[in-house]
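Pilot study result, target chain (203 residues):
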Amino acid sequence: VVLHAIDHHDGGEVALKIPSRRDPDTLKRFERECAATLDASGGLHLPKVHGTGVDPRVGPYLAVEYVHGENLVEHVSRTGPLSPVVAIRLGKQLLDAIGRIHRTGLVHRDVKPANVMLTEDRAVLVDLGAAKSDAMPTVTAPRTLVGSLRWVAPELLRDGGSTAPNERVDLYGVALVLWYALTGKPPYFPLEDPAELAQAIVD
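Predicted structure:
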């Protein structure tokens, strides 16, 4: 659950994220997201972290920069595909964000247009809820797909999903985001059926 809130320390707007449930697995995933967000924070193209902790009223929380703007899906729906020049600039900014994440030993694992926020002068890659490093404990069951099917790398669907995500899956995600930005259509459009979509990705 993400709320629009005010940081009482500096009066700034924040996106306040709290876990949707309080079961052990959900809380462990949320703890992992907080750690990943703190590790990768900084730079222009990732949200600034305001704080994380446990509040007696709302429980565990993660407060990050509230990014004013719209995500790439909303922007393309409103204005149409990006020009090549703008798309190149977007790609460079996303690679900057991904590079910062990878330098901390993390993999984002869910790079997609809905997680790319656009402001007047920059792109911001948000939502490290799926991010993971080899050192982090595994919470999801083996062979459980993490991320959004349409935007997932083919190798994660092959061999029953036994391949561990690495930095290449994020680069593949950036490539698909740029495809969408330039064409206005998601990859494998107009397929919607999950089984047909998965087969098209693997093929």
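One observation from the pilot: The two ends are 36 Å apart (CA to CA). A full batch analysis is planned for the follow-on phase.
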